[in-house]
């Protein structure tokens, strides 16, 4: 557990030399990885390498930089950034996923518009080095976090409070679980937690070892459809007696999010959704340091003020080298039964923000009176009122997450379970698209 200042940008840098030095002693030496060749690039190489540290090879359980898979960075005359990655075998089944993740990370850096990925194959020596590093890292990682390397991590963020981050997190979590995924939910809003209420959870986190130096927590588990939610929140931390509760709270107050990341036994997870607190806080920088493979999704309302603050949140994420995966507009225009459209907070704000920060608009959730009562009842509008305007929009959003933004790792590997779930998502996608076509609004705002 490192304890460096979250504001120090060098925290995200973890040069191989330092790692090797720290492991001196009785341990067998960890093979050193060769630095990539750099040619003709005017972009800060450290920034590119930091962005690439967010690309995980889920099979090897580590990022492609520390595994020494990045071989060449080259800026060509047409300004494209070419990145050569050496795979353990040329036919690696994770090729498509590595390509997508690498492009997404590097293209989000300022000054880089086009990213081209080339794949090579490791030599036998390189392969055995990489396996040794992966084994070492796997052992080391086990101490740091129990979040599986194949888990997709999405932080739901915004600059401004009250735009619907928690509602979006809860609805997406329930929809993903309903489709058969194991979904972790980390309530990073330590002071203003809302996940237990929104997800209808009233049991408490089980913990062991509070006061003994090393505490381990088990998330609260709730079955949803074919899948499960695993939730940690300050709101679920209490003891069966007040002394225990005080002990837990004391332990948690300072670095609650870090504890949630390091000391929770998450078990198998396909997704981890992080409900971020309002504001561009230290927690976001801390996340960049602790979980650099996090993708950030920015929630905004269509209002101008919300967009401006949301743009700052995106900027902050990028400074920590987190990939911004897209924008979700919430409280957007809603279509009335007579086909007219009501836009209480205006319209088009999500799209404008997405264009401004150069990421896709993932969806627009309309302002819908069905949301508050379902949230108050601890259920999700997306599954309780699937035919409400918000319910339909949430289902479309979940489809985009599963098929485009952060496809579960199994899907890229064509496992039977992944294939079945994806078949469900495709059907669902076709259904919601057909429904929205039928409901095409007569736009008068
Ligand atoms: N699409 C929607 N239609 C109607 N009401 C909504 C919608 N989305 C969220 N709300 C309501 O808006 C309020 C704020 O939502 P929420 O708590 O999710 O925002 P937040 O961004 O997490 O807030 P905070 O910054 O305080 O954590 C809640 O009362 C919620 O029920
Ligand atoms: Mg919230």
Explain this structure.
The protein is of the alpha/beta class. The protein has two domains: 136 residues, GMP Synthetase, Chain A, domain 3 (2-Layer Sandwich); 287 residues, Rossmann fold (3-Layer(aba) Sandwich). It has 16 helices and 18 strands. Strands 11-12-8-13-7-14-15-18 form an eight-stranded mixed sheet, sandwiched between helices. A four-stranded mixed sheet has the order 1-4-5-6, covered by helices on one side. The relative contact order is 0.12. The site of magnesium ion has 5 residues, from α5.
Can I get a quick summary?
The chain has 445 residues and is of the alpha/beta class. The chain contains 16 helices and 18 strands.
Topology (elements, then pairings):
Elements lengths: L15 H7 L14 E3 L5 H8 L3 E2 L4 E2 L6 E6 L5 E7 L7 H13 L7 E7 L2 H21 L7 E6 L7 H14 L3 E6 L7 H4 L7 E3 L7 E3 L1 E5 L2 E6 L9 H11 L3 H7 L8 E5 L6 H9 L4 E6 L3 H16 L3 E10 L1 E2 L5 E2 L6 H9 L3 E6 L4 H6 L4 H4 L4 H17 L3 H4 L3 H23 L7
Parallel strand pairs: 1-4, 5-6, 7-13, 7-14, 8-12, 8-13, 14-15, 15-18
Antiparallel strand pairs: 2-3, 4-5, 9-10, 11-12, 16-17
The structure holds adenosine-5'-triphosphate (ATP) and magnesium ion.
Highest-level CATH class of the largest domain? Alpha Beta
Strand order of the largest sheet: 11-12-8-13-7-14-15-18
What name does the CATH topology of the largest domain carry? Rossmann fold
Residue fraction in strands: 15-25%
Tally of structural domains: 2
CATH architecture level-2 label of the largest domain: 3-Layer(aba) Sandwich
The ligands found in this model are:
adenosine-5'-triphosphate, magnesium ion
Question: What is the global morphology?
Answer: globular
Specify the structural class. Answer: alpha/beta
Average the pLDDT over all residues and give the rounded result.
Answer: 78
Report Rg.
Answer: 22 Å
Number of helices: 16
């Amino acid at each position: 557990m490192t304890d460096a200042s979250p504001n120090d940008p060098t925290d995200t840098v973890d040069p191989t030399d330092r790692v090797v030095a720290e492991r001196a002693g009785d341990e067998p030496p960890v093979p050193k990885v060769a630095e990539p060749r750099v040619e003709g690039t005017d972009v800060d190489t450290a920034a590119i390498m930091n962005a690439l540290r967010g690309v995980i090879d889920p099979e090897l359980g580590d990022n492609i930089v520390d595994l020494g898979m990045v071989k060449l960075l080259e800026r060509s005359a047409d300004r494209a950034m070419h990145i050569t990655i050496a795979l353990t075998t040329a036919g690696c089944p994770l090729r498509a996923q590595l390509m997508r993740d690498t492009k997404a990370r590097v293209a989000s850096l300022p000054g880089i518009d086009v990213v081209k990925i080339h794949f090579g194959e490791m030599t036998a020596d390189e392969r055995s080095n990489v396996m040794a590093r992966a084994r070492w890292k796997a052992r080391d990682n086990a101490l740091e976090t129990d979040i599986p390397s194949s888990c997709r991590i999405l932080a739901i963020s915004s600059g401004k409070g009250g735009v619907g981050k928690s509602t979006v997190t809860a609805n997406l979590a329930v929809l993903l679980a309903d489709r058969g995924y194991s979904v972790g939910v980390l309530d990073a809003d330590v002071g203003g937690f809302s996940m237990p209420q929104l997800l209808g959870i009233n049991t408490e986190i089980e913990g062991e070892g509070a006061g003994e130096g090393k505490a381990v927590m088990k998330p609260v588990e709730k079955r949803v459809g074919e899948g499960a939610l695993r939730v940690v929140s300050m709101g679920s931390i209490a003891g069966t007696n007040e002394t225990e509760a005080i002990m837990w709270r004391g332990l948690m107050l300072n670095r609650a999010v870090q504890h949630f990341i390091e000391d929770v036994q998450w078990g198998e997870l396909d997704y981890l959704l992080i409900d971020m607190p309002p504001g561009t806080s230290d927690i976001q920088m801390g996340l960049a340091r602790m979980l650099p493979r996090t993708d950030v999704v920015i929630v905004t309302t269509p209002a101008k003020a919300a967009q401006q603050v949301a743009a700052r949140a995106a900027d902050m994420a990028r400074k920590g080298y987190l990939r911004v995966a897209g924008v979700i507009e919430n409280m957007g225009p809603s279509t009335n039964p007579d086909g007219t459209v009501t836009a209480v907070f205006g319209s088009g704000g999500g799209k404008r923000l997405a264009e401004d920060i150069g990421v896709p608009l993932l969806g627009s959730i309309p302002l819908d009176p069905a949301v508050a009562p379902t949230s108050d009842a601890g259920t999700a509008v997306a599954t309780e009122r699937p035919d409400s305007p918000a319910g339909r929009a949430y289902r479309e959003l979940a489809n985009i997450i599963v098929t485009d933004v952060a496809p579960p790792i199994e899907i890229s590997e064509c496992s039977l379970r992944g294939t079945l779930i994806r078949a469900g998502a495709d059907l669902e996608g076709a259904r919601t698209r057909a429904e929205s076509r039928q409901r095409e609004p007569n736009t008068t705002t």
